[in-house]
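haha ok so turns out i had the wrong file open the whole time. this is the CORRECT one, sorry everyone. sequence first:
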Amino acid sequence: MSAWFALGLIAPLLVLLVKGGSSEYIRRQATESLNFQLNAFVWSAILVVSLFFLIGFILLPLYGLFYLIQVILASVRASGGRDFRYALTVRVIS
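then structure:
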């Protein structure tokens, strides 16, 4: 949990605050990542609660796989200098 907090929430927030003003591309990607991580936190909490209803035992691993695929795709696209929009993400921060 602490690794996710440090890498998932703190890292994109720091990138947004430190480098967001110098590059529009960096600002867009950091904002997109931060939105995805906030959504991931909310969905994970909901799915942990759904464990009590047994459906969470199926949905939580599926969401974990979805999360992993999205992070890998975003990393590959960003390393190539292309924009990436995470799927199924409510964009709270713009």
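The two ends are 26 Å apart (CA to CA).
again sry for the mixup
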